């Protein structure tokens, strides 16, 4: 089976009836580069920049960060690399910057933390822009966006970084800018956010957690955590439909992209791009190449009418068995 999956690498991620979906890799480690490329990733859809920060003993300097980001951009060049700015807080902590909160997932996390620590943020933005010089395959992604102000404040910092670097003699090309859709409020103001961004990436892990108000790491409630809940599926469909109308390219980069049953529904909703851990790419590609888009659309139409997670799962299992 594994051999069969490897043989998929050079085949397009295209349904039998001709719908292409871009498949990208999630990473945060240089060691993941080869697995991604060898499994046919068309780029990096999510570079989790907190991972190198978590592996350091103190905040990496701007120069150290350039040396971390540049090899990733180079390895994939000219394929696109989407680097997410620091997403610490929640369950992701830096050993050298400890703070405790009663509700860390609702607290000082992602863009909230970085906007409050603008010198750290500025050094990261400057490092990413410098790493991209002469390559121009970088795009930037902002985590945990819940309000428009966060995007606007970020853009001010970005402008500041660009002006500083240009005055230091660097030639900077502005990368494309995207936001994570993982806090439900972002879904409700997507039209307002859209004017200021180039693309979106749905973080299905947090989107599910925040929409259902279920801490996925708490065993007492983790059985309630499911992206097959009708409310989550409606939320996802709303994001995809709105984004299409607004002309925003849409990717999904949570674990859902590696769940074959979920991939059928995402195809049916009309998603453009999926990003996942390198090791799960072949499995997702296999689903895309096995199930016609027309089938995915009709399965999604059926599932939309279902009221329970168990009925939805059962139907998807049947479809997978029929096609595999
Ligand atoms: C997500 O929330 O789905 C996501 C991809 O981000 P992370 O898992 O890093 O929070
Ligand atoms: Mg997330």
UniProtKB/TrEMBL annotation:
It is found in: Cytoplasm. It comes from the Bacteria. Belongs to the PEP-utilizing enzyme family. This is phosphoenolpyruvate--protein phosphotransferase. The chain holds residues 433 to 756 of 766 of the full protein.
């Amino acid at each position: 089976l594994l051999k069969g999956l490897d043989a998929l690498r050079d085949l397009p991620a295209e349904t039998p009836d001709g719908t292409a979906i871009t498949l990208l890799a999630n990473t945060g480690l240089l060691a993941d580069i080869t697995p991604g490329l060898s499994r046919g990733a068309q780029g990096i859809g999510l570079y989790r920049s907190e991972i190198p920060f978590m592996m350091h003993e103190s905040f990496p300097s701007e120069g150290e960060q350039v040396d971390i980001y540049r090899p990733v951009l180079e390895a994939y060049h000219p394929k696109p690399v989407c680097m997410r700015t620091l997403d610490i807080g929640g369950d992701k902590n830096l050993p050298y910057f400890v703070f405790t909160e009663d509700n860390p997932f609702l607290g000082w996390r992602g863009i909230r933390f970085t906007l409050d620590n603008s010198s750290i943020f500025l050094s990261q933005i400057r490092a990413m822009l410098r790493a991209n010089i002469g390559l121009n395959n970088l795009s930037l992604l902002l985590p945990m966006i819940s309000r428009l102000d966060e995007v606007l404040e970020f853009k001010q910092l970005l402008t500041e970084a660009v002006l500083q670097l240009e005055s230091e003699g660097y030639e900077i090309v502005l990368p494309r800018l995207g936001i994570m859709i993982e806090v439900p409020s972002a879904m409700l103001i997507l039209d307002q956010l859209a004017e200021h961004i180039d693309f979106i990436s749905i973080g299905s892990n947090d989107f599910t957690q925040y929409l259902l108000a279920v801490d996925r790491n708490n065993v007492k409630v983790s059985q309630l955590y499911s992206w097959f809940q009708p409310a989550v599926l409606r939320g996802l469909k709303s994001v995809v439909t709105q984004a299409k109308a607004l002309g925003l390219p849409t990717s999904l980069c949570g674990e859902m992209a590696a769940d074959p049953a979920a991939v059928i529904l995402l195809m049916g909703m009309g998603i453009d791009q999926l990003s996942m851990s390198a090791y799960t790419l072949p499995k997702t590609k296999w689903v895309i190449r096995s199930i016609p888009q027309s089938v995915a659309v009709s399965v999604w139409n059926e599932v939309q009418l279902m009221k329970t997670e168990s009925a939805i799962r059962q139907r998807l299992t049947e479809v997978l068995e029929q096609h595999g």
